[in-house]
Write a structure and sequence with these properties.
550 residues, alpha/beta, seven-stranded parallel β-sheet, 23 strands, 21% strand, globular, binds glutamine
Length: 550
């Protein structure tokens, strides 16, 4: 039978529940257990696919094509597991399922209520991960880690708390509660304060949940006296009061948790023999490389969202690759939206920023805001032989720039940037709406999503980077390279070096004569993990470290 670990958070948001959940997964995995991690988000959207990154950070895409919370990216990067649509749930999806059942008549004669109907649906979605697959005798996972989004006390997370309270009642020792809180340091008083934690635990207890393990986020070290005070006030064993101090990197968290016995405490609570503490092996090697890196590699991220979380998977993938090249990544966000940046209006500061990078990434995105800045960046990188990586919209920008400035098609654009009423018959849509997208009117969940095959052209740069000819990468887009122009592009130096074998879509473009100029219609960043950095990011960083020859 699978065992369950529920992770909740209190006091404030952004404490790093996702990192803690991923770290628990990593530590149990290191002990030889099969794990999976899921996230419940309390908002009413069906998925974060239609949310602005300013509201919710990056949207992470699973191999099976679900648009999900960015924490799933942490789960995959830490543990190397592949999550699915069952690993990401929202209040919206749960209500939709219950309302669909009501319309179908599944509950004929009954009043549909939050308890038991919504809570039962939540429980079902937690437990469906432990269903024994057909033809097998054991569930696929030893441990299911469920992260409950939001902060204890929020009105919208109440049904989740009720559902996990009931599950604990049913499962007994096979379920444990881990609660993450914050211990602030008051400078004026020179003291660390535990009261917010006590209140948060009380709130949890009033929902019928007694945390088994408390993890205290803190900027300063907590001594044993303070930990025992928390233990005493919150009915938690002292060895189960663990601190999570600020660390130089999120990847240090599993090591810190293991040192304090978090995984051992979980096992003990469940009555599972603890045994020796296993070595984290290659994970420690990765951390060693990070700690000892003295030099930097400078990468410019050209995009329109000036927010750390908007390009999370890209910045983590770059950081993994830099680590394996003995470097620390120095990321500079370069805003492509000149309208927001008065100082860039004459372009010279923008160009100056581009110039000082070892490599440039043209980021994904939607809509026409910030497009001209991205085109300028692509042109600058192409003309100055600076390694340049275009991802999704970034690849489309590379194509548009090449059409305008090399093929002399001054009106070249993507259909995405031109409304029907503006469209002139003569416009060269080098990027066009996919045929399969033309009759779609709903916005949510309707893009080309998830993993698709891609055949690499023999002798191309990407084929040598991947070291194979058939790859599979994840997508999230509606527009595509327009094949009507492919011949002209190839005759003039930009080749289509990867194609989807079923639809004939160009999925990769590259300029073989350039030091490194590759655009991918897919998002390689969703598949880079700590222990398996992605070959494209590895090669991009490697080339960015070689000296520039213009
Ligand atoms: N907006 C572009 C499209 O829909 C690119 C999407 C992206 O960058 N994820 O095709």
């Amino acid at each position: 039978m699978s065992k369950y670990i529920f992770v909740t958070g209190g006091v404030v948001s952004s404490l790093g529940k996702g990192i803690i959940s991923a770290s628990i997964g990593k530590l149990l995995q290191t002990r030889g257990y099969k794990i999976t991690i899921q996230k419940f988000d309390p908002y009413i959207n069906i998925d974060p696919g239609t949310l602005n990154p300013y509201e919710h950070g990056e949207c992470y895409v699973t191999a099976d094509g679900m648009e999900t919370d960015l924490d799933l990216g942490h789960y995959e990067r830490f543990t190397g597991i592949q999550t699915t649509r069952y690993n990401s749930q929202t209040t919206g999806r749960i209500y939709q399922a219950v309302i669909d059942k009501e319309r179908r008549g599944d509950y004929l004669g009954h009043t549909i209520q939050v308890v038991p109907h919504i809570t039962d649906e939540i429980k079902r979605r937690i437990q469906q991960l432990s269903l024994v697959p057909k033809g097998k005798t054991t569930p696929p996972f030893d441990f299911i880690i469920t992260e409950i989004g939001g902060t204890i006390g929020d009105i919208e997370s109440a049904p989740f708390l009720e559902a996990i309270r009931q599950l604990k009642w049913e499962l007994g020792k096979d379920a444990v509660f881990v609660h993450l809180t914050y211990v602030p340091y008051l400078k004026a008083a020179g003291e660390l304060k535990t009261k917010p934690t006590q209140h948060s635990v009380k709130e949890l207890q009033s929902a019928g949940i007694q945390p088994d393990i408390l993890i205290l986020r803190t900027e300063r070290h907590l001594d044993d006296h303070l930990r025992s005070k928390v233990a005493g006030f919150c009915n938690v064993d002292l060895e189960c009061v663990i601190q999570s101090e600020d660390l130089p990197s999120i990847y240090e968290v599993p090591v810190n948790m293991q040192k304090q016995g978090l995984d051992a405490a979980i096992l003990r609570k469940m009555g599972i023999p603890v045994g020796e503490t296993p070595s984290l092996g290659p994970w420690n090697h990765f951390l060693e490389l990070r700690r000892s890196a003295k030099d930097i590699v400078r990468i410019g991220l050209v995009g329109k969202y000036n927010l750390q979380d908007a390009y999370k998977s890209i910045s983590e993938s770059l950081s993994h690759a830099a680590t394996y090249h003995h470097r620390t990544i120095q990321l500079t966000f370069i805003n492509s939206d000149f309208s927001e940046n008065a100082e860039f209006s004459d372009n010279s500061d923008f160009i100056h920023l581009l110039q000082s990078q070892d490599g440039i990434v043209i980021c994904p995105g939607f809509g026409h805001r910030g497009i001209e800045g991205k085109i300028l960046a692509a042109q600058y990188a192409r003309e100055h032989n600076i390694p340049c990586f275009g991802i999704c919209l970034g690849m489309q920008i590379m194509v548009i720039e090449f059409a305008r400035n090399v093929l002399n098609m001054k009106d070249a654009t993507s259909h995405e940037f031109v409304t029907d009423s503006q469209a002139k018959a003569a416009t060269n849509y080098v990027i066009d709406l996919m045929e399969e997208q033309k009759n779609i009117s709903q916005m949510g969940g309707t893009m080309r999503l998830g993993a698709y095959d891609c055949e690499l052209v023999e002798g191309s740069r990407v084929a040598s980077i991947y070291g194979e000819n058939l790859i599979r990468e994840r997508h999230r887009h509606r527009y595509e390279f327009n094949n009507a122009f492919l011949k002209t592009f190839e005759e003039n130096g930009m080749m289509g070096s990867g194609k989807n074998p079923d639809a004939d879509f160009v999925e990769i473009v590259e300029i073989p004569k350039h030091r490194w100029y590759i655009g991918t219609q897919f998002h390689p960043e969703y598949q880079s993990t700590v222990l398996q950095p992605h070959p494209l990011f590895m090669d991009f960083i490697k080339t960015s470290l070689t000296s520039r020859t213009v």
